[in-house]
Amino acid sequence: MPRIIIPSVTLSPQKEVRISDKDAHYLINVLRLKKADLLHILDDRGNVHSAEIISINKKEVIAKIKGTEKVNTESSLKLILVQSILKGEKMDLVIQKATELGVKEIYPVISSRTIARSTEKYERWHKIAKESVRQCGRTEIPAIHKPILFEDFLRLMDERFKGFIFYEDSKKGLKEIIPAQRVSQIYCIMGPEGGFSPDEINMAASKGFIQAGLGPRILRAETATITALGLLQFIYGDL
């Protein structure tokens, strides 16, 4: 059934909902829905509302809520991605796949070898995450923080174990260095196209992050992030 997301709303049976702008365009022009068609409306509290279209025109859809159910497709693991900003569509891809893989928060950071330093796509990343939530069946949109310098991010951390920083020169994979304790929250720090500098690796280590590799082959930055997130969800989460 078609799905749209309307966060920060309170919906209840028989309530009418006005849908406009891009969501209306999606329902009208992409899916070509008509009066009496059904759809699901997601809020940001894990509720899925079934609704029936009662009115439709070129710019607006009005739907009536028929019922509500609580759905939980969220991982029990609070997986937090710290991603050095990548060039062009690579960052878009990472935002999309991180959302699909259940990441709860994303920190875009600027490290010493970051090539793309513009933060103009901040709003675009939110839209990509929202669309990915709609597509993959999640009920929560990941929080995307405003871009900051990598060293400023590290200043937010204390010296206890927080997670992993993935580094192409590391000789040890996750299966060799996984801490014995189970965790409910984990940070995944990923570098830019040129990787992290040795100084940045040392800075992260001083804050409790464990250095890890992803095998003998050099992965593209976006491939490395998707791989690392999948592994962490397999080890600690719900994959």
Descriptors:
single chain; 239 residues; alpha/beta; Ribosomal Protein L25, Chain P; Alpha/beta knot; 2 domains; 7-stranded parallel β-sheet; 5-stranded mixed β-sheet; 30% helix; elongated
Structural overview:
- The chain is α/β, with parallel strands linked by helices and 239 residues long.
- It folds into 2 domains: 68 residues, Beta Barrel (Ribosomal Protein L25, Chain P), CATH 2.40.240.20; 159 residues, SPOUT methyltransferase, trefoil knot domain (Alpha/beta knot), CATH 3.40.1280.10.
- Helix content is 30%, strand content 26%.
- The chain is built from 7 helices and 12 strands.
- Strand 6, helix 2 and strand 7 form a beta-alpha-beta unit.
- The longest helix has 16 residues.
- The protein starts with a strand and ends with a helix.
